[in-house]
Amino acid sequence: MMGPLLAIQDLQVAFRMGRGKRAQAVGGMGGAGAGVSFDVAENSTVALVGESGSGKSVTAMSVLGLLPENAERRGRILWQGRDLLQASLRELQALRGREIACVFQDPMSSLNPVFTIGRQLAEPLRKHLGLSARQAARRAEELLAEVGIPEPARRLASHPHELSGGQQQRVMIAMALACEPRLLIADEPTTALDVTIQRQILELLARLKTQHRMSVLFISHDLALVGEIADRVVVMRHGQVREEGPVAQIFAQPQDAYTKALLACRPSLEGNPRRLMVIDEHIAAQGRNGASAEAAAPAKDPDAPVVLEVKSLAKSFWLRQGLFGRREFKAVQDVNFRLRRGHTLGVVGESGSGKTTMGLTLLRLHEPTSGEVIFDGRNLLALTDRERLAMRRRIQIVFQNPYASLNPRFTIGQTLVEPMAIHGIGADTAEREQRARALLQKVGLDARAFGKYPHEFSGGQRQRVAIARCLTLSPEVLVLDEAVSALDVSVQAQVLNLLKDLQDELRLAYVFISHDLAVVRFISDEVLVMKDGRVVERAGAEQILAAPKEEYTRRLLAAVPRGWQPGARA
Amino acid sequence: MSAVLPAAAADEGAAPASEGVWHAAWRRFRGDRVGLGSLLVVLAFVLLIAAAALGLVARDWQDEIAVPNAPPTLLGARAPAGGGSGIEAPKGPNVDLSDIDPLAPRYREWDERARQYQTQERPKAATLPFGGDRLGRDVLAKAIKGTEISVFVGVAAALCATLIGTVLGALAGFFGGRAGDLLEWVYNVFESIPNILLIFAFAAVVGRGVEGVVVILALTGWTGMYRQVRAEFMKHASREYVRSAEAIGASAASRMFRHILPNVSHVILVRMSLLAVGFIKAEVILSYLGLGVRVDQVSWGTMLAEAQSELILGYWWQLVTATLFMAVFVTAFSLATDALRDALDPRLRGLE
Asked: Which residue is closest to A500 within chain B, CA to CA?
């Protein structure tokens, strides 16, 4: 038997930070054996799994030497027995694209916006394979057809912005496949995409792998996702390999506490725990007899007062067409729902389904075109500006990206005190600061966070700050616009638990917008499924899971990653 | 949840204030050797300007202390005979004319009298460290005094232009719509007129003088700043942190100037430094064309204007001195603000 295609042995990567400081990204500080080691066999899929900052991308990028200048690599990376760390740049360039190809997370920024798809596809073909322009064009068309893009001949002449995100990622995969590489490195290739598109891309990768007999190194933070396609799984944390093994073993008999915790913290479609296990809790609970968090949720009062009622809400944007023409684009039409105190309404749909626009319209961050939003008996859309300020307090929003939603020039304290100052809550600054500190504790942050700036916090911590900012105004309704989508699976569990706790304690009503049905189902009482600006299905959370009525809902459900299933694959 | 530390309440008062944006910027700035060096040069210039303004140095720049066009000390004094002081002395022995000269008996008396007054006149220096101008004024003193005016003009005009450009740009970028269209129209009107023509037009109305130059440059130079600030505000207005501020009820003015402005300040700062450099050069051109400062004032521009006629006669030192001062200041200023931009840019944070 031949040796593995790629063997990484005791790899350690550190970044020089200037002034003699170094940051260890991969591998421990110690000598031999402390680094990362694993093999990628021929025609197999190996998944690297870990939270952000676990060193998984750094490990993968060291294979091709695509790290920044200040990286120092030690150990051995053997490509068919040849050490790539000793290879010259010329040798590496011959490998890149030809033998080892990469697909990155964000297709939008990986494609050059000013060149056509055809031209970008043809470039590696002509450079590496020496095809003529005509041959390259024909091959490019074949490749596009192979990755499942309709009308490939016509698409060759399109520019990247004319394609959807999923199609762009397909083009990136086609480019990577152009020279029939032996190994494809896919760095979170589906994280920026919708669940349904993610499903298609995964299927595409699996199909291509068998067709071309290539190996895939798949990087992801989502264990459930890689469970579906990987043959072997490498779990990383803090630059160390925590566990490595065949996928069945990792899912059926995880050995490492961290792996077990990762498996437990993602909301799934089976079973509905009251709370999600978070990594630290789970590791702490290992010794004890699996402290069960599966206690059934106390039934919510079905007759709680209605706090928010929306009647035939609609929002249109006007697109310019031609010189004078305008075309109406109906982003949201005819949305109706009632939200009771202490309840959660989940809103799911693919991107472009109008769910975010709907959320923003509720707060009048977008002016609605028509409809009524009745909050506490008054139509929010008919208020004067002065009355609106008072109402604004009671309905608040948490945005998707915690890196963008906090002002980088404000300390956490300033961020929290500002809304109270605007609305005159608290007698003076001292009292407001007191309240802000109390709220920080409530969302699980140290009171010392008060004087710090957002860049000193991780994504999950920032999202807690954003939630605390909303709570300063004691709102009754919180709109959570993809509030956990940008977070790692493990951090997502913490924030979801926090939201549940806060709901129980403060009797908040949530409008929870997400593209992930498993998450929505975990937190919601009722679910709206939106498509093209319309509500296509509306039912209780359990009902929608058990008996989805619409084809679209079934598709969304099928797209949720389920992890490794015994017998799912032959 | 699991990470809550209730003990934190105990040391609440002692909560360490985190490193602020400005502190962090200063720490990064200190690490930049070129930036730090440039800043020192700029500070030296600032001290020089302060001293000149207080009259500690270069107060008597108008005194004619040397012979006309005295060369720099380095070159040595001009050979007196070699100087083309008129007609060549005739050859041959001197002829004694005293017996036919009717004034001859009085020469001695006049010499006596003249000697009594001679003590009043100071001897003119033959050379000066950086040379003298056509009236024998010290070029170094002129350059120092000129620094005061030129830098004042550049910085003051840049501040005014920044103020105009930032306020209009913020309004146009944040509100867009009708207000944006109107401001865009004003901008286009200003941009469509050739710059120098616009400057002439304003100069004709405002008249000569330092204040006049500041007003002219500010009124013609704000357009680039406007454009850039407008673009930045358009970008930031749709960012989530501004949306969040709107959701908590922050007013438009608060969102514009409390939330967005600090986040685009690095762009404004750099643009302002570029404006200052550009305006210093523009003042030179204006003064050169006779639209600049008054005749009893001196700036780098007026020095260069004088240098034009001197250069034909081979007196190059005034030109070199003024250019040297300007080049050193402008380069140091540019480098220092460039380092400042790097230190302030929030995007670079976390890369360290």
From this structure: B1
Residue A508 sits at φ, ψ, to 5 deg, of -80, 150
Chain A nearest-CA distance from B301, in A, is: 41
d(CA A436, CA A432): 6
- Mark yes or no for CB contact B248/A473 under 8 Å: yes
* Residue B240 to residue A404, Cβ atoms within 8 A: yes
Query: 10 Å Cβ neighbour count for A76?
Result: 16
Q: Output the pLDDT for position A282.
A: 63
- SS3 of B45-92: the string is HHHHHHHHHCCCCCCCCCCECECCCCCEHHHCCCCCCCCCCCCCCCCC
The string of DSSP letters for B104-117 reads GGGHHHHHHHHHHH
Answer for the pair A115, A162: CB distance below 8 angstroms, yes or no. no
User: A315, A332 in Cβ contact below 8 A?
Assistant: yes
Cβ-count burial of A110 within 10 angstroms (0-12 exposed, 13-18 middle, 19+ buried)?
middle
Integer Rg of chain B from CA? 30
Helix (H, G, I), strand (E, B) or coil at A384: coil
What confidence score (pLDDT) does residue A298 get?
Answer: 55
A392 touches chain B (CB under 8 A): yes
pTM, 2 dp: 0.74
**Rg of chain A over all Cα atoms, to the nearest angstrom:** 25
Cβ of residue A356 closer than 8 Å to a chain B Cβ: no
Q: Please, which residues have CB within 8 angstroms of residue A227's CB and are 6 or more apart in sequence?
A: A233, A247, A250, A251, A561, A562, A563, A564, A565
3-state secondary structure of A214: coil
Q: How many Å apart are CA A183 and CA A287, to the nearest integer?
A: 41
Q: What is the C-alpha separation between B108 and B114, in angstroms, rounded?
A: 10
Q: Distance (Å, rounded) from C-alpha A276 to C-alpha A267?
A: 7
- Give φ, ψ of B215 to 5 degrees: -60, -45
Inter-chain residue contact A446 with B8, CB threshold 8 Å: yes
Cβ-defined contacts of B321-329 (< 8 Å, 24+): B321/B130, B321/B131, B321/B139, B321/B140, B321/B142, B321/B143, B322/B143, B322/B146, B325/B143, B325/B146, B325/B147, B325/B300, B326/B150, B326/B280, B326/B281, B326/B284, B326/B300, B328/B41, B329/B41, B329/B42, B329/B45, B329/B147, B329/B151, B329/B280
B139, B132 contact by CB (below 8 A): yes
- H/E stretch holding B162 reads helix B139-175
**Interface touch A365/B243, C-beta < 8 Å:** yes
Count, in order, helices (H) and strands (E) of chain A: 21, 21
Task: Kindly state whether B119 is in contact with chain A, defined as any CB-CB distance less than 8 angstroms.
Answer: no
Give pLDDT tens digits for A285-339.
654 444 444 444 555 677 778 888 888 888 888 877 666 777 788 888 888 888 8
Nearest one of A222, A54, A465, A491 to B244, comparing CA atoms: A465
pLDDT grade for B343, boundaries at 50, 70 and 90: confident
Contact between A468 and A417 (Cβ < 8 Å): no
- Which chain B residues have a beta carbon less than 8 Å from that of A450? 15
Token pair 């749709």 in the structure block, residue: B238
Task: Give the pair of three-digit tokens for residue B187.
Answer: 């901008």
Residues forming beta bridges with residue A306, ordered by sequence position: A340
Are A392 and B250 in contact (CB < 8 Å)? no
Residue with tokens 């350690």: A12
**Cα(A22)–Cα(B319) distance, integer angstroms:** 51
Q: H or E stretch including A374? A: strand A370-375
Among A70, A407, A439, the strongest candidate for a mutation testing the B interface, having the largest count of B CBs within 10 A, is: A407
